[in-house]
Amino acid sequence: MPLQFELCPGRMIGGNHPCFIIAEIGQNHQGDIEIAKEMIKMAKDCGADCAKFQKSELEYKFNKQALERPYTSKNSWGKTYGEHKRHLEFSHEQYRELQKYAAEVGIFFTASGMDEMAVEFLHEINVPFFKVGSGDTNNFPYLEKTAKKGRPMVVSSGMQSMETMRRVYKTVKQHNKNFAILQCTSAYPLEAEDVNLRVITEYQKEFPDIPIGYSGHESGISISVAAVALGAKVIERHITLDKTLKGSDHEASLVCSELAELVRSIRLVERALGSGIKQMLPCEKACHDKLGKSVVAKVKIPKGTVLTLDMLAVKVAEPMGVAAEDIFQLVGKTVTEEVEEDESLLSEVVDSYGKKAKS
C-alpha cells in the first residue's frame, strides 16, 4: 500500500483516502484579486480540495535580460516580459488576503513557489504544502532546500525523464518522506497521444512508498478521471472563468461546470473501485436467487445410488440445490433419498457432502 500522509490539516492522501483535487488558478486571475477570489469560491463550490496559485519573486526567477525582452504575444500584459509578469503577480499582502479569504470560504490554499525566495514567502505564511512546478523539478538545490522546510510536497514531472525522477525521489526522500509525484506533460493544451497515463503505473512500481498523482493540461475531464482509475491519489487541473480570456493557460483549463463534473466523476469512480476482493455481494442476492443455477437430477436417481456425472445437470431450479460450481464434488457420493428426474439435488440428500460443505 502506498504511503499515506497528512497533506493538509486533517486531510490525508494516499492509501484508501479520497483523491485530493487541486484547482490550479495559477495566473488565470488576470492580475485581478477580485477575480482570484471568485475563482477560489468557484473551486470550493465545485468540490475541489485546494485552490492553488503560482508565486514568483520575479528577480529571483528570471535574469534581467529575460525580464527586459520585448513581449508582443496576444497574451501580453506589457511591452516587456517583465511588465507582463508583474501585472500577473500578486503582492505579499494580496497573497495574505487571498489566503484569509480561502480560509473563510473553507478550502485549502497554497501556491507553487516558482523560485527559492517564493518558497521562503510561502513557508512564512504557513501554506499546508509546497507544490513544485515542472520547471523546478530538475532544480536540485531548490528541491533540497524546499524539502528541508519539512512541509509536505507535491512534485510535478513535466519535461523530465525517469532517470531524473529517480534522482528527484532520492533527493526529496532524504529530507522529507511526505511527498507525492505527479505524472505531467508540459503542453497547453495537451493532446491525448502525449498524456502517457501509463507513467502513473510505472511511477507506482518505481516509488511504491509514496502516493502518485496526475497533473493534466488536456481538454475535458475523461483523461483525468481515467488517471484516478489507474490509482492517482492527487489530481491537479487548471481552472478558468472563461476559456476565451487572454492568457495561454485558459484554453487548457476547466470552467465551473467541467470542474464540478470532474469532482463528481472522480468520487463516482472511487466508489466503483471497491476493495479488489472478488466475492458475491449482497446487492447480487436478488439476481442469484432468481437466476442462479444449481444441480438437478438429469434422470431419476434411486436411494443409495453412487452419483456419476451423467446423472446430473445444471439448471435454474426451485428450490435451489447444490451450487453449480460444486457439481464435480458430487461425483462418487451416495444419495440418501430418492431424487426424481429434474428435481433439485439438495445437499442434505447427498451423503458426506453437506457435512463437508459446512466444515
UniProtKB/TrEMBL annotation:
GO terms for cellular component: extracellular region. It catalyses: aldehydo-N-acetyl-D-mannosamine 6-phosphate + phosphoenolpyruvate + H2O = N-acetylneuraminate 9-phosphate + phosphate. Its EC number is 2.5.1.57. Keywords: Antifreeze protein, Secreted, Transferase. Belongs to the type-III AFP family. It is found in: Secreted. Residues 294-353 form the AFP-like domain. It comes from the Eukaryota. Its main location: secreted. PROSITE patterns: AFP_LIKE (PS50844). This is N-acetylneuraminate-9-phosphate synthase. One of its GO terms (molecular function) is N-acylneuraminate-9-phosphate synthase activity. Contributes to protect fish blood from freezing at subzero sea water temperatures. Lowers the blood freezing point. Binds to nascent ice crystals and prevents further growth. It is an enzyme of class 2 (transferase). SUPFAM superfamilies: AFP III-like domain (SSF51269), Aldolase (SSF51569). Coiled coil: none annotated. GO terms for biological process: carbohydrate biosynthetic process; carbohydrate derivative biosynthetic process; N-acetylneuraminate metabolic process.
